[in-house]
Amino acid sequence: MAAIPTRTTQQGHRTKALSGASSAAGAMMTLSGALSVIMGVSGVAQDTLFAGSAGYTYWFDLTTWGVIHLVVGAVLLVSGLGVLADKSWGRGVGAAMAAISLITQFMFVPHYPAWAIPMMTLDLLILFALTRFHIETIGAR
Fold first, then answer.
1. Which pLDDT score, from 0 to 100, does residue 27 have?
2. 116 neighbors 105 (Cβ within 8 angstroms)
3. 19 pLDDT band (50/70/90 cuts)?
4. What residues contact 76, with CB distance under 8 A and at least 6 apart?
5. CA-to-CA distance for 101 and 109, rounded, in angstroms?
6. Mean of the pLDDT values across residues 23-37?
7. I want to staple 83 with a disulfide (CB 3.0 to 4.6 A). Which of 17, 41, 90, 124 is the partner?
8. Is 84 inside any structural domain?
9. DSSP labels for 113-126?
10. Structural domain includes residue 53
11. pLDDT-based confidence at 76, cuts 50/70/90?
């Protein structure tokens, strides 16, 4: 069984070290969350940033898209901070919210593809980083 990496604080206490994948996932989640909140505010403010046709299957008004982005972004931001703080709930909530964000960004592509496609890539990287640790841990048992 592989040993869990530890670090020593300035006070001499030994604590678990956060893996590189978890640190990257937490940082990407806070970035994705903050950007989604900004996009949500733009949608709620009835900005002219979004485009789209009324014939699109997943068409919602600007306020609805703004609220969707605000909620998803806020939860991503909080769960990203949870991952960075090494909270047990952060990884599960983060993976679920990255998947939800990926789906909502896919639905948002016709409205703003220059935004949605890079955000989908970021969400995929978050999912990879969060699930990579779990797979390695299971394999080490």
1. 92
2. yes
3. confident
4. 29, 30, 32, 33, 36, 94, 97, 98, 101
5. 12
6. 92
7. 90
8. yes
9. HHHHHHHHHHHHHH
10. no
11. very high
Domain count, the chain: 1
Number of H helices and number of E strands within the chain?
4, 2
Q: Residue 3: what pLDDT?
A: 43
Q: State both tokens at 91.
A: 């990884």
Q: How far is CA 23 from CA 27, 34, 91, 94, in A?
A: 6, 17, 11, 13
Question: Domain of 83?
Answer: 20-44+61-140
> Would residue 35 count as lying in a domain?
yes
Tell me if 124 is assigned to some domain.
yes
How sure is the predictor about 122, in pLDDT bands with cuts at 50, 70 and 90?
Answer: very high
**CB distance 125 to 28 below 8 Å:** yes
For 14, the enclosing helix (H) or strand (E) is: strand 14-16
Res. 132: pLDDT tops 80: no
The helix or strand, by DSSP H or E, that contains position 26, with its residue range, turns out to be: helix 20-44
